[in-house]
Amino acid sequence: MEKILEVKNLSTAFATDSDLITVLDGVSFDLIKGKTLGIVGESGCGKSVTSLSIMRLLPRPAGRITGGEVLYRGTDLTKISLGEMHKIRGNKIAMIFQEPMTALNPVQKIGDQLGESFRLHFPNMNDDEVRAQSLNMLESVGISDIRRRLREYPHQLSGGIRQRVMIAIALACKPDILIADEPTTALDVTIQAQILKLIKDLQKENGMSVMFITHDLGVIAEICDDVVVMYTGHVVEKGSVNDIFENPKHPYTKGLLESIPRLEHPRKTKLKIIEGMVPDLLNLPSGCRFGNRCPYIVDECKQKVPVLEKVLDAHYSKCLKHASFMKENV
Ligand SMILES: Nc1ncnc2c1ncn2[C@@H]1O[C@H](COP(=O)(O)OP(=O)(O)O)[C@@H](O)[C@H]1O
Ligand SMILES: [Mg+2]
Question: Which of 57, 79, 169, 321 measures 20 to 30 Å from 262, CA to CA?
Answer without folding.
Answer: 321
